[in-house]
Structure formats: structure tokens, C-alpha cells
């Protein structure tokens, strides 16, 4: 029996060291599931796994959608974990830094702008 390892190039061909799903993500409102990955490219990346219904409706759309890249670490990110009580995300890396991330609404960001 031959086995082939699947390679996923989600972190600029660097290894992925950690994955965690957000159990507080509102599946009914957004559809699918949100998860984070931490990798050798010094970044935390946010993704959305589309629901089976979405994938059946349009099989040509990728099953995983990229949402954001969180790039405050200066060395590989070894662990990402969502809070069991909220949608906050903790990440830690070889730089010796632990970062607690929280999502900020776009409306909140726009309120203070002076374009």
C-alpha cells in the first residue's frame, strides 16, 4: 500500500504547527465554521470552512475561504487557541510572545476615521 502525504500551502509553503476551531462562531448567521492556523511564516491565519450545503450548491467554490492574516509575531507561531467563552484567540510563538486577539467590527473602525 502506498500513502501520499497531502501538502497544503496555506502559510507560504511553511509548516502549519497549530489549528483550532472557534466553537463560538455563529454557524447559522455566517454558514460554515471558522478556524485559525499558526505556522512557520510567523503568521496566524483565519479561515472559514464552508458548510456542506454551500459546497453542494456550488461545487466549484473552494471548501476553505481565507479570511485574514494576523501578523504581529516575529518568529514561527506554535499554538493558536480560541477561548471557550468568547471568540478571542490566543497565539504564542518562538518569539516568546503570547498575543490575545479579538475581532473588531468594521463599523467601529470606520467611526473614528477622518478621511
Descriptive notes:
- By secondary structure, this protein is mainly β.
- The protein is 14% helix and 36% strand.
- The strands form 2 sheets. It has a 4-stranded antiparallel sheet with strand order 1-2-3-4, with no helix packed on it.
- The protein is globular and about 45 Å long.
- The N and C termini lie far apart (62 Å).
- Residues 108-115 have low confidence and may be disordered.
Pick out its properties:
three-stranded antiparallel β-sheet; four-stranded antiparallel β-sheet; 115 residues; mainly beta; globular; 14% helix; disordered C terminus
Provide a quick synopsis of the model:
This protein has 115 residues and is mostly beta strands. The chain is built from 3 helices and 7 strands. The longest helix has 6 residues, at 52-57.
Please specify the SSE layout and strand pairing.
Elements: E1 16-21, H1 27-30, E2 33-39, E3 44-49, H2 52-57, E4 64-70, E5 77-82, E6 89-93, E7 98-101, H3 106-111
Antiparallel strand pairs: 1-2, 2-3, 3-4, 5-6, 6-7
Q: Total helix count?
A: 3
Please identify the structural class as seen in this structure: mainly beta
What fraction of residues sit in β-strands? 35-45%
Low-confidence stretches: 108-115
Q: Could you say which overall geometry the principal axes of the C-alpha atoms support? A: globular
Please tell me the overall pLDDT. 85
Distance between the termini: 62 Å
Task: Summarize the main sheet.
Answer: 4 strands, antiparallel
Oligomeric organization of the protein chains: single chain
Helix coverage percent: 10-25%
Adjacency order of strands in the biggest sheet:
1-2-3-4
The count of DSSP E runs of length 2 or more, i.e. the number of strands, is 7
User: Cα-atom Rg, whole angstroms?
Assistant: 16 Å
| SSE series | EHEEHEEEEH
